[in-house]
Amino acid sequence: xxxxxxxxxxxxxxxxxxxSPSNVTSSIVASANGFLSSLDEGQRSKALFDFxxxxxxxxxxxxPTTMVPRAGLKMGDLSEAQRKAAIGLxxxxxxxxxxxxxxxxxxxxxxxxxxxGARGATMFGRDLFYISILxxxxxxxxWMLQFGGHHLALNITIVGREGILTPSxxxxxxxxxxxxxxxxxxxxxxxxxAFALINALDEGQRKQAILNYKVADLVLGPGQDGKTIQPExxxxxxxxxxQQAMLLDLVGEWxxxxxxxxxxxxxxxxxxxxxxxxxxxxxxxxxxxPAYYRIQGPTVVVEYAPxxxxxxxxxxxxxxxxxxxxxxxxxxxxx
Amino acid sequence: xxxxxVGVLFALSLSAHRLxxxxxxxxxxxxxxxxxxxxxxxxxxxxxxxxxxxxDRDRDGRISAQEExxxxxxxxxxxxxxxxxxxxxxxxxxxxxxxxxxxxxGLGTIRLKLRTTRTGHALRFENRxxxxxxxxxxxxxxxxDDGLAVKRQERDEGQRSIAFEYSxxxxxTPVPLxxxxxxxxxxxxxxxxxxxxxxxxxxxxxxxxxxx
Lengths: 335, 212
Prior knowledge:
Largest sheet of chain B: 6 strands, antiparallel
Shape of chain B: elongated
Helix content of chain A: 40-55%
Largest sheet of chain A: 12 strands, mixed
Number of domains of chain A: 2
Radius of gyration of chain B: 30 Å
Number of strands of chain A: 14
Shape of chain A: globular
Number of helices of chain B: 5
Structural class of chain B: alpha+beta
Oligomer: heterodimer
Radius of gyration of chain A: 21 Å
Order of helices and strands of chain A: HHHEHEHHHEEEEEEEHHEHHEEEEH
């Protein structure tokens, strides 16, 4: 009996340790070191930057890497084992659904490459994504992982137990494609949950939420670090509990990209500020039509902007996710 | 990759950037000392000939410093800022021009910073520069440190203009309470202590009265 109790206690302790935040950071650091040790010296010097390298920190974009060059290591230049280690590191920092979203965006870019013939081959595809590390992977000191390319920019700052995903950009073109007969919509939930929310508002609430002007693009996209605009739309404090839950669920499509423990802390922070969070909409409210929306609170900014390029705007989406108080972990890391 | 059967439902264009519009994005910063207007102008490749025709006046395929200056001055003339209903002259503070090659690739952004020292309570901004080929964004920056409070912003459908009232009332920050006072249990505890003290006084008085 004593043996059983001991084993049960050990199992409980093991599970607790496995799920402890410090253990998640340890696991990410181990993945980062595994990736770095898979590289030769020349590759390592290309992948590593000083944590305070301000120029590298902001070197991300929605545009193809042939148009806006990224620094770091290109996926297409890595061996199969190195590539596996790189993707393994990205996966270690993300939740399952966040990782799946990233893969779906990369596969979408591969689809764009396939559809684009010779020109597409030079601009798009999963070989043209870059990875870089700012600082030294550590369970204690701040460091940063950058991964991205066309339509993807993940800026993940690790500060001890904290994981900060802002600013990050997710985008998709095509926004809908099929793989082996399965339909993939990398940003489908971001679209569908938003339309569900706007249609869950009553007429008076919709009047507050819907802006009477067109929004042609992201306002706080790449290159707009450190800026905060005046919020507009409807305040979450004017929503009922069910609508508020839908709003949080929608924000979760971005805050839930990072690993569960960081996502959980982030969502708790967003919940605390929920009453002061705004939801603004521009465009039709019928799902399937192109509509822009913005969620803006004291610690969160999300924008979703269909792009009038490439024909149908619903098939080309850009989104941005920011924390005006802690982009690049500036609050947590103190840089 | 042969597993990937691309079932793209709509015709795809390989354009990764804006093609047929001149995106003019304006951010307005209102401070107690004046108003700053930052305009970013990004021509799509399809409208570049129309834009360069305005900038490259001598058509030599290059943008000279004088042409940059003249173009920035033209944009400055074609935007209007009114403060409390009166025109507020904007001074050109800073310009940044990309290379023509960057603009040919749809990546070049012209950046202008304008400023006025006028202050007031109501602002209206309008951009009248190249409306035939342009898409506009215009927003007011938040400035909580200055206590800026902005009332409802009114724009036209295409975001060529914005108007709003503002004040700096929100800047009156109350003096923070000492942490030991601000902490929740302080006030109930203080109230309890007062009640105990009051009861002690009453008991003392009743004893005195009985003794007398």
